Amino acid sequence: MNSSTSVYLDLVRFCAAFLVFIVHANYERFTGGLPFLWRFSDLGNDAVMVFFVLSGFVISYVANGKEDSIDKYFVSRFARLYSVVVPALILTAALDLVGSRITYELYDGWWFETSYPFGRFLANLLFVNEIWFSSIRPFSNGPFWSIGYEFWYYVLFAFSFYLKGRTKYLIIISICLLVGPKILILLPVWMLGVLVYRVNSSDLIGHRIGWILFVASIGLYVMYVSYDGQAYLLRITENTLGNDLYEKLMWSKYFLSSYIVGLLVAANFIGFKSISTSFSPIMNFISKPIRYLASYTFVLYLLHYPLLQFFSALTFDASTGRTQPFIVVTGTLFTVWLLGGITEGQKGRYKKSISMLWSFLSERRVKSTG
After folding, report:
1. What is the mean pLDDT of residues 206-214?
2. Residues 6+ apart with CB under 8 A from 128
3. DSSP state of 130
4. CA–CA separation, 148 vs 126, rounded Å?
5. What is the largest CA-CA distance in the chain?
6. Which of 97, 171, 179, 334 is the right S-S partner for 183, CB 3.0 to 4.6 Å?
């Protein structure tokens, strides 16, 4: 992957995370609605699909590069996930506990789930929060749902990529039966990222086709949003599946829209790679700030929602029924910046600890079979 493409993907990654933040910051109970930002209110799921395609691409890239064994692969994945997931879950629980005592009415709704708190925490820690038709929200942290999808995509990819023979297929089928249809229905979107990696590695796309893919993908997405394509496809899904199954799908009910957005994102990434040299001066100029911002993407995505909830509770004025939008937004972003530096610094420690645990388990497995 050349430098321009790498910077572009980092730019898209940060923009997607920031878009999710904007969508949620615009909620009535957080800020009362921010000027002009209502236009982005239906784009949250599209931003998550950008993450799915990016994730499939990055995982393919590292698996074909430095992570040349399944052991290295899983150690890196667990270190990356848990370096942010563990602090995010702990902080969510703490913020919700304090915030709900300050202004409970802002937590009094479907967006705040507290039943069986230990089991809820554990389910999300072990990434079984979204298997089959369950959806176990970690207290107020709604965006956590996508991690419960991506983890299993990592697992399925690992066994399909590193293993050989009949055992591979038995394991993959077992995992599919474990996670259920809700997660699997969005797997094609994630796999589009794998396709992007393979196409980009083969250099099959020429400069002219690259420009067509890049420009057309943007233009078609603007048209899709302008004509409210997501709402139209949701109506088709509900009418076809029936209300009961439609509601059981939870986040996956957007699957038709997700397929379209995923295809457009994949086309955009393939197109950009072919024309990336045309953007080299710009990408080189913005590379440092973009890479810096991109390093906060995971933290921003996983922590912004409980922070918005907390700062809204902290600034809520019962006499007016309003919060302080400036404090809610800036307080959230500042805290994300503060915590992002800490979690990134801990990633190496997590990797070392997980590597030691993995080695210990591997040795025990060898001894037990020896």
Report:
1. 91
2. 136, 148
3. T
4. 9
5. 71
6. 179
